[in-house]
Amino acid sequence: MRGKQDHSTERALHRQQTDAELLIWQCLRGRRLHECKFRRQHRVGPFYLDFVCLEIGLIIELDGSQRLEPQQQHADELRTLYLEKLGYRVLRFWDDEVLRDTDAVLEEIAREVRAG
């Protein structure tokens, strides 16, 4: 039997969501996109993922300007490689891209879901 898990980190991440994360979550939650169940701030290994559909192994990550730092970009590349080795596909979008062109972002996600 598993012990009780501490979900305080997930709760804190839910409260600190960006406008872009809130917008995408409203479009993904409740199986709104092709009946796929997405989870937010779901932990896989040492990482908390912005959004993931476990059924088809699709991860969606939204990045802000802090991700422009070379050190952070390298960390993101390693993270993506780790997740891909586990069998996930990873889509990354910039926060401002989500806010400027939500429909195009959702269409790209939908393409990946259909390819799923």
Q: Can you characterise this structure?
A:
The chain has a single domain (18-115), classed as VSR Endonuclease (Endonuclease, Chain A, 3-Layer(aba) Sandwich). It is built from five helices and four strands, in the order H-H-E-E-E-H-E-H-H. The chain has helices at 8-15, 19-28, 70-85, 95-100, 102-115; strands spanning 39-44, 47-53, 58-63, 89-94. A four-stranded mixed beta sheet has the order 1-2-3-4, with helices on both faces. Strand 2 (47-53) and strand 3 form a beta hairpin. The mean pLDDT is 88.
Largest sheet: 4 strands, mixed
Going by helix content, strand content and strand pairing, the class is alpha+beta
Strand content: 15-25%
CATH superfamily caption: VSR Endonuclease
Q: What's the N-to-C terminus distance?
A: 33 Å
User: What best-fitting shape do the alpha-carbon axes yield?
Assistant: globular
Strand order of the largest sheet: 1-2-3-4
From the alpha carbons, calculate the radius of gyration and give it in angstroms: 14 Å
Q: What fraction, in percent, of the residue positions are helical?
A: 40-55%
Short description:
By secondary structure, the chain is an alpha+beta fold. 47% of the residues lie in helices and 22% in strands. It has a single domain (18-115), classed as VSR Endonuclease (Endonuclease, Chain A), CATH 3.40.960.10.
Short key terms for the protein model shown above:
116 residues, 4-stranded mixed β-sheet, alpha+beta, globular, 4 strands
Topology:
Layout: H1 8-15, H2 19-28, E1 39-44, E2 47-53, E3 58-63, H3 70-85, E4 89-94, H4 95-100, H5 102-115
Parallel strand pairs: 3-4
Antiparallel strand pairs: 1-2, 2-3
